[in-house]
Amino acid sequence: MLKLDGMLMIGSAVSNIGKTDLACTLLKKFSKNYDITGIKVTTIKDKEGQCPRGGKGCGVCATLEGAYCITEELGSSSEKDTARLLAAGASRVFWLRVLNEHLLQGIKALLDIIGQDTISICESNSLRQVVEPSLFLIQDREGHVVFSDNFEGFPLDERTSQGIISTIYNYLNECEIKEEFLYRQKYLNFTLVTYVSESLILSYVFVGKSYSAMRKIESLINDFNTSTDIWREMKLIVKNNEKLNLEIRTKLSDYLETIFL
Q1: Lowest mean pLDDT among 3-12, 96-105, 141-150, 194-203
Q2: Is the pTM of this model over 0.90?
Q3: DSSP state of 177
Q4: What is the rounded CA–CA span in Å between residue 62 and residue 44?
Q5: Could you tell me the sign of the dihedral formed by the alpha carbons of 253, 258, 260, 261, in that order?
């Protein structure tokens, strides 16, 4: 994992919901006092496969030669995302097109150009697999920032964490919850859904009654029982009594987004 203290990374639950708008807003505010490099990363899973953004014939994937391609944006008058970043105040803007399995190689090549200590704003979800930025923001379908994995100053101390774990443990014991069974319980206006299997606890809390919420947790449990890759890794970690490393946490976060966002 490559740690970049000068990078702010912006991701999103879906495409075309305002990552560039947010990046431009930040650039307009801070570029007056800092030299900030804009970075847009397009990750390609298969050059011959379906476009990950749903389009046809744009050539972004098919025209990639080699493992990655780095292009510097030199114009600020068009409506391209990279041009908008430049117009918003970025000192330089780069577009990295890269095969997914070569993300680390591609970003290292870009850092050779701009320097590892450069202050940057980067639009990417996939790059989080290989880079630990100073701050990672995720936008929901409406473009609102709903998550950041920078928890410095987050009011969750050891005592609070122990209290949460103890509460869950006591709840499971008192309710005599059996494995492989979906439990649903109402408390005030909240619904708590719990599922236990192989030393893993899946719990989902939502407000009111929601058919779609139940379908989401059922989808999660179905994936769990069919042992998708992410769950196989989770079960192995639990079995070996290991901590979740950053790579697994990122993969789990991305996976849960596909179900709950």
Answers
A1: 141-150
A2: no
A3: P
A4: 9
A5: positive
Q: Quickly tell me which residue has 């006092």 as its tokens.
A: 33
What order of strands is seen across the sheet that includes strand 92-99? 68-72, 92-99, 37-44, 120-123, 2-12, 131-139, 145-148
- Helix/strand number for the chain, H first, E second: 7, 10
Determine the Cα–Cα distance for residues 145 and 36; give it in Å rounded to an integer.
21
- DSSP labels, 119-176: -EEEE-SGGGGTEEEEEEEEE-TTS-EEEES--TT-S--HHHHHHHHHHHHHHHHHHT
Mean pLDDT value across the chain: 78
Q: Under 8 Å CB-to-CB from 139, ≥6 apart: which residues?
A: 10, 11, 12, 13, 17, 18, 19, 22, 145, 146
Residues in the chain: 261
Ramachandran category for residue 98: left, alpha or beta (phi over 0 → left; psi -120 to 50 → alpha): beta
Nearest to residue 19, comparing CAs of 146, 140, 123, 131? 123
pLDDT at 155 over 70: no
The answer on pLDDT for 36 being more than 50 is yes
Nearest by Cα to 12 from 107, 143, 103: 143
**C-alpha to C-alpha distance for 186 and 193, rounded to whole angstroms:** 9
Q: Which two tokens stand for residue 101?
A: 């399995």
By the 10 Å C-beta count (0-12 exposed, 13-18 middle, 19+ buried), 233 is classed as middle
Backbone angles phi, psi at 83, to 5 degrees: -70, -35
C-beta of residue 156 within 8 angstroms of C-beta of residue 165? no
Q: 């908008």: which residue's tokens?
A: 84
Single-letter amino acid code for the residue at 143: G
